[in-house]
Amino acid sequence: MLPAVKGSFQRFFRQVVGGSTFLFGATAAALVWANLSEPGYHHVWHADLTFQLGEFAVTKSLAHWIDEALMTLFFFVVGLEIKREILVGELASFKKALLPVAAAVGGMVVPATLYAIINLGQESAHGWGIPMATDIAFALAVLAILGKRIPLGLKVFLSALAIADDLGAVLVIALFYTQQIAWSYLAVASFFLLLLFVANRLWIRQALIYAVLGIGVWVAILGSGVHATVAGVLVAMFIPARSKYETETFVTKVRGYLEEFECEPGSCGFTILLNRRHLDTVRAIEESCQDVETPLQQLENGLHGWIAYLVIPLFALANAGLSLAGFQPSVAVGHPVTLGVLVGLTIGKPLGISLFALLTARWMKVDLPAGVTARHIIGAGCLGGIGFTMALFISGLSFSHPELIEFSKLGIIAASLISALAGIGVLLSAKMPDPGAV
Predict the structure, then answer these.
(1) Residue burial 312-321, b: 16+ Cβ < 10 Å; e: rest
(2) SS3 string of 242-307?
(3) Could you tell me if residue 133 is left (phi over 0), alpha (psi between -120 and 50 degrees) or otherwise beta?
(4) How far apart (Å, rounded) are the C-alpha atoms in residues 249 and 35?
(5) How far apart are CA 277 and CA 280, in angstroms?
(6) Is the pLDDT assigned to residue 438 strictly greater than 50?
(7) In this structure, which CATH number among 1.20.1530.10, 3.50.50.60, 3.40.50.300, 1.25.40.10 belongs to the domain 3-177+227-242+294-428?
């Protein structure tokens, strides 16, 4: 991996891991709150909130606004990450994408199948999508705990797997968790998407244009019956991934600006503070860097912190509250929903990820990432069982009965803890990477 690409991934890794601290804190707060005052917890998040513009008014609970509005931003950033990975990342070529995509497919198919078998013929069978997802923030946070024992290639593999996994989850939500479709609203959404396509082809870079059109897509999708968060991924696909001018032009411009700093060795000092020409040159270089950065990069970098440090923790605070009052352990643990989620995440995920990845590597002659062994892949498969954020999200789409939602939360939280511990155990027993490998 090239130093610049390696540094870029390391920044992404640190930001995701940093956000996991807030996510963990919000989850703990939700659990404590729900057990100290379950009625108060539910009263806050189920309070109605109305947005009105003239005669047009939308009333939903606070939890629904978080799930359908704020989480749309989360899915928008997920869409930007998917597009970036397809264009220049680990999903940019068939050979590079084969291993993480195969692992993601295995990590979705096997858990969903196990859940479906356990819940066969039950009203809870609709929740088969719950154990399909991987929470990238928690999974990478566990890898961060292990530090230098983990090769960089495994972190990249797990990130690419989680992004491919997110794409699969979005498709599942759009295709299987839509109750009824209003085609007239979808036609309006298609019109706004067409405008986004035109704006992209005309090389329009103003974020406000895409924001206005994106809101139009979201409102139309919201009325169509398809879950509104799908709009986030759709809009992301139309964000321009080309810069204002080519790289050669950027290099030529910056070289010309740097010539303005020519001075005798040791005589420049702090001229940027004193020399107006040098100060103007620095600003020109800064503007050139902004111009060469694509709108996709600008939006992803600008929104990632808000998503990691605000949106996802707020979602966890509103959805992770699980009250244990009145829970009968034998009933709760033995319920098909709890069992299906537990088995799907703790057994189905590592089995599907490791089996599909290793068989693909063997049959398709694809090399594992540098420094990564079969045991590392199995450990990553265990960490894939940390479903949390997306699993909670799909749980809310799967069930309307509060008891089934509570059972699914129990399974998700328990399975995520077990998967984290199992992943740490397997990876600690794996071979230490070569310090000189990149």
Answers:
(1) bbbbbbbbbb
(2) CCCCCHHHHHHHHHHHHHHHCCCCCCCCCHHHHCHHHHHHHHHHHHHHHHHCCHHHHHHHHHHHHH
(3) beta
(4) 60
(5) 5
(6) no
(7) 1.20.1530.10
DSSP assignments along 389-421, one per residue: HHHHHHHHHH--SHHHHHHHHHHHHHHHHHHHH
pLDDT in tens, 306-342: 888 888 899 889 888 888 777 777 777 889 999 999 9
For 49, the enclosing helix (H) or strand (E) is strand 48-53
Burial class (CB in 10 A: 0-12, 13-18, 19+), 162: buried
Q: What b/e sequence results for 403-425 when a residue is b if at least 16 CB atoms lie within 10 Å of its CB, and e otherwise?
A: ebbbbbbbbbbbbbebbbebbbe
Which run of H or E residues covers position 330? helix 329-334
* Domain range list for the chain: 3-177+227-242+294-428, 179-226, 247-289
Within 10 A of 52 (CB to CB), how many other CB atoms are there?
Answer: 9
Q: What is the pLDDT of residues 29-56, one digit of tens each?
A: 999 999 998 889 989 998 988 877 777 7
Say if residues 389 and 23 touch (Cβ distance below 8 Å).
yes
Instruction: Report residue 158 as tokens.
Output: 């797990």
User: For the chain, what percentages of helix, strand and coil (3-state, to nearest 5) are there?
Assistant: 75, 5, 20
d(CA 385, CA 110): 12
b/e burial code for range 267-296 (CB count within 10 A of at least 16 → b)? eeeeeeeebeebeebeeebeebeeebebbb
Rounded distance between C-alpha atoms, residue 45 and residue 382, angstroms: 32
CA distances from 97 to 91, 93, 106, 380 (A): 4, 6, 14, 17
Given a cut of 90, is residue 104 above it in pLDDT? yes
- Give me the mean pLDDT over the 282-296 stretch: 79
Amino acid of residue 273? L
Q: Is 244 exposed, middle or buried (0-12, 13-18, 19+ CB in 10 A)?
A: middle
Q: Are 438 and 1 in contact (CB under 8 A)?
A: yes
Give me the residues paired with residue 61 across strands. Answer: 48
What contacts 303, CB < 8 A, 6 or more positions away? Answer: 73, 76, 77, 80
By CB atoms closer than 10 A (0-12, 13-18, 19+), residue 302 is exposed
pTM of the model: 0.80
Beta bridge partners of 50: 59
> CA-to-CA distance for 106 and 351, rounded, in angstroms?
8
